[in-house]
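We store sequence, tokenised fold; for instance:
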Amino acid sequence: MKPTTKLLTFFAFLGLIAFTAGCPGNTTKTNTTANAARNTANPIPTANPNAPAGAQPPNMRGAATAAVTVEEFADFQCPTCATVHEMMKNVTGVYGSRIKFIYRNFPLTQIHKNAYDAALAAEAAGLQGRFWEMQNQLFTNQQAWSNSSDARTLFTGYAEKVGLDTEKFQSDLVALPTKQRVDSDIERGRALNVSGTPTIYINGRTVPPAQMNVDSLRSLIDAELQNVALKNQSQPPAGSTAPSATANTSATANTSATANTSAANSTPTNTSAANGAK
């Protein structure tokens, strides 16, 4: 193998490792060991049902009443999240109202200096009904603003591009309600033990990094949709009478009738016995 070919193969391998790992959070050696032990015991951990709800209403696509929920925790400055962003656009386009896709902000501020401000920018755009347009701008132009010393100016440019009132956008960018939405998502992520991005849940079950591709995501969603359909088929239609209830009623009536008849027949026998005693 030529040296150039070997070098290209090596960098391709490093790229695969980086994508699989995603963007790690601020984890210590102890936490890493604990996470490894937990993952060995439960390869597909489920979300904590008692975790805080996150920003409400959430940034959502699809139908609020959909039986399958896909929830992603992401960092706008995370390169892997930018790649997964394209995948999720594909997935949400395919399933439409059959799923509920929720995007959660989880900026890794300890390694990404502009990630938190990017999350604020997306939420500020959301206050004007343009969250998804800004989300797309931030991921598409990630390399342009990631290391900028004046990222907010670039964000304002994106705001203008997607048709926002830039004066209101700049005001909302530093407003408390915007910060509270981002912080609420972070609080939920921490309660779910999210330690890196992207982290994706499908109906509360964690998607392993190796399955963060369009084909695998679609297979997992299809399986959940099938499970929901089978569950619905096994339930009787609303307003119908369960057969077991009728059977139990008949059995109770028959038992009572038999008991009453036996009691009536036994009365003369008891009377005769009493007369015999006399």
Notes: Residues 26 and 110 are 7 Å apart (CA to CA). The first strand starts at residue 23 and ends at 24. The domain at 18-26+42-231 is CATH 3.40.30.10 (Glutaredoxin). Residues 7-14, 26-43, 245-278 have pLDDT under 50 and may be disordered.
